[in-house]
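question for whoever is on the cluster today: can someone run the full assembly for these? two chains, 637 residues total. i dont have access anymore since they changed the login thing
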Amino acid sequence: MRIVVAYKWTCDPEEATARPDGTVDWSRAKPGLSTYDPVAMELARRLAEEAGAELVGVTVGAKGVGAPIASKAALGRGLDRVVIVEDESLREAGRSELAAVVAEVIRHIGDVDLVITGDSSVDVAAKMVPTVLAGELGWPAVAEVTSVTGQAGALRVERAIPGGVQVLQISGPAVLAASADAAAPRVPGMKELLAAARKPVELLDLTALKVPPAGAVMTVTGRARPERKARKGQLIDTTDPAAAAAELVAALRAAGAL
Amino acid sequence: MDFDLTDEQQLIREAVREFAQTEVAPKAAEIDRDHRFPSEFLARMAELNIMGMPYPEKFGGAGADNVSYVLAAEEIARACATTSVVLLAHASLATFPVYKFGTDAQQDRYLHDMASGRRLGAFALTEPGAGTDAGAGTTTATLKGDEYVLNGSKIFITNAPFAEIYIVFAKTDPAQGTRGMSAFIVERDTPGFSVGEAEHKLGIRGSSTPPLYFADCHIPQDALLGGEGDGFKIAMQTLDGGRIGIAAQAVGIAQGALDAAAAYAKERVQFGKPIAALQAIQWMIADMATQLDAARLLTYRAAWCEDNGRPYGTEGAMAKLFASETATRVCDRAIQVHGGYGFTESYPVERNYRDAKITELYEGTSEVQRMVIARSYLR
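^ ran it for u. tokens below:
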């Protein structure tokens, strides 16, 4: 079986700071694997350990995603090899455009039985790439996946739904987005990390891939915080606990909370 | 000059930090309070190939460099000083002599098990009457036929009785002083070898450091490590590297205390604002951070020297001396930042303070480090 894990090499917004003028300072943020991608790698590893599979990492993006440390970080988490498209023209690419590139990479790799991605990226969190990717490939897309077992052509997928778990049987290749808490990624061992440098890294040329041009273009035009309700600021004198309790209950009832 | 870590060193540091913060840190207070040997972390560190990190893969180690090993020790110490000393005593003190001085047969028999973490090691040099004056040991090893017979005692032996393999230093020729000392590999459960009562300590309370007793303990002749009379040299060379690990431990303990102090200062409100807004606190944090960074750089530099075939005895001594004294100072200031709360068990800094002190004492007191450093300047 051949499993592709699509991962992202990017900066965590938690490490960015806001300047007094409101702009974002990323200078102290160090890039790393997007927070939920190791969860996807863990699910892939478990399936590979059970069914026997080649684990291929795929990442596409602007300059930096092909840095040796990025590949080693991914390979050190159990992938057998990685295939990368690193092109500065992708820096401002929309999610659909990136998904189209990933789809071409998957066609280039060939004989892929399954794609697993993280829940969403730590910096953009659009939750679009897995779905658009599946569309490009003509495969089912399933999100909130908590486990995947079985083998190529007969995958058994568990998916979190409100109030429980849904079990799916999938008879062919699919794109699965692992839920953020599907698994605790295992800590990489020292030998694994040191062996990462010896594993194959394939860099593909974007223009040679002949990715079809993007369709609709989507841009984020605004963000807003939810409106803050004005607080009542009602103070209750607690000198007499019994009276205070009665007053509190009455106030909560009046506010419709009880 | 390149101050960057390599890719591997960065990834190793992140992975060990993940292990230390998610698995070890939550148990550190309990390990200290219950004086509990952290066997579960021994097993985890073995699984993660940390127990024999700097030893070649062919011997069961991870084949990492000493800088990586130091980064790992620092991250673990930041979470739990006890767990870090179990690792350091095993990897730097017990495994190193077998790696450096062992015969093929001895390495076949012990090194793979030790470097992989399957069997724990201990280093038995110190005696009741021989601490800083390590050459004054009175434990003897007398050759009788094809066996050595050990008689004497050791004190403060980290990892006993959990360790299965002990590097024991004993006088084969007491009349020769330090030149009459030899090193032996002794297995636990050898008749005549027993372990005494646990020592109750100020800090690293989960680390087991009992005395050892040798009463007509017969060991095979091939238990001799190196040649007769090589013992003191083996001990000193081993400690040269070991003290770089202790420097890393000191840096880690101090970093944990500094992290706690900075977090507390941002939360604690007095006079209507977080105390982090007060210059007195800011200056304390600035001094702590600067001295800690200096200690860290000395430590990495010593490990780099070892990795690059440079002499590292003086560099290691400087790192250990400065890092240990910095750690006690930083932990003292960390309690000061916390005020009265820092004196209680509800906050981790009192444990950091108690743990830090040992770094000024073991693997050569600060006085020994000063002797080593002075000697290289005043020769």
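summary bc i know u wont read the tokens: Chain B has eleven helices and ten strands. The radius of gyration of chain B is 21 Å.
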